[in-house]
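The methods section describes the discrete structure representation at length, but only in general terms. What matters is that the chain and its backbone geometry are given together, residue for residue. For illustration, here is how one protein appears when written out as sequence plus structure tokens:
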Amino acid sequence: MLLKMAFRNIIRHRRRSFFTALMIIGAFTFFSVSLGMVEGSYSRIIDMFTGNKTGHIQIHGKGYIDKPSIYNTLNDHDAIADTLENIEGIEAWTPRMFAPALAFVNTKTTGVSIRGIDPERESRTTRIRGKLIDGEYLSAEPQMEVMLSKPLARILNAEPGSEVVLIGQGADGSVANDIFTVSGIVNEEDRGSLYMHIEIAGEFIYLQGKVHEIAVILREHEASREMAGKIENIINDPGIEVLPWQQIEKGFYRAMEMDKQGNWITQFIIMFITALGVLNTVLMSILERTREFGVLRALGTRPHQIFALILSEASMLSIIGIVGGIVFSIATNQYLSVYGIALPEPVALEGMKFESYVSKVTAMTIYLPAVVTFVVAVGVSVFPAIRAARIMPVDALRAN
């Protein structure tokens, strides 16, 4: 009976019910889109960051991240590679080798970080091929050629075709030195990055058949932690550690999480404004219906029934608003996930341009606004409902 009365009251006061539901729809949509923009923009940043540099997961010898050493290698990386090929959810992987060296071009010299890569696998795992701004990408077959980062090329005054002399230390204690040709320049901010074929790098520092790192890209970056644990369990080698990008780039991850927490202040303000609007609407509704409640009390309706009636009306209106909000928010988030909101000025990140904010449709952008909106809409109705339940029939009937 209470639900029937609540529904009839909503229908009877169409104008008031419409604006209350519209306010709830607007708040839900604004809240959902705000969450979607945060999730979408950060997902794009994570994809750009991990796709340009770290990968979603990295596999190293124990302790390599804390103390890199050319001697801390993955000796049986072929077996690890076979394991990765059979794990569902992995999109690509690539081996890497690192070593310090001195680079000379004519009279220019500077320290560099040699990055031995498999050109084909690296291009499928990261966006390095897309960052090539001059010259040609490394050949699939081992050649005495290197690619330089843009800042390194500027320091050495080098260009495609220039000869670079590298001097370093081999893993066997000998002096490693050779002459290489610059094949291309990549748009990367790291001033010391110098890329060469992983087989050439192995020969240069006498680490043939060994690698320092295997970077892994997943289909969904959200599964990084879970997948890292799964890979580590499958490999089951105490001398190998498998780390998600959150542990590899702790500084970046902490900064991003702090920024996300700051966004909750905005969400709180949105819901506070919504709560005030719903409270005002419900309170005015109670004042307008004072005589109506007085008649109900005079006919024998108990206070708790009036209280339940008002909360039932608020619940129905919030459900109507939530359903409408879900429709509008999904449509808006889907549109913004494709077209986004253009930034006044592009932001450079790891050699890639971040030109717009984009949204993302996730379960959280639906269920969180739904729960919060329902709790807020019903919660702010409690005070007016208590006031109406306590009203004296005589005073209510005399009200103007």
User: Anything to note?
Assistant: The chain has a mean pLDDT of 84. The radius of gyration is 31 Å. The CA atoms of residues 153 and 159 lie 7 Å apart.
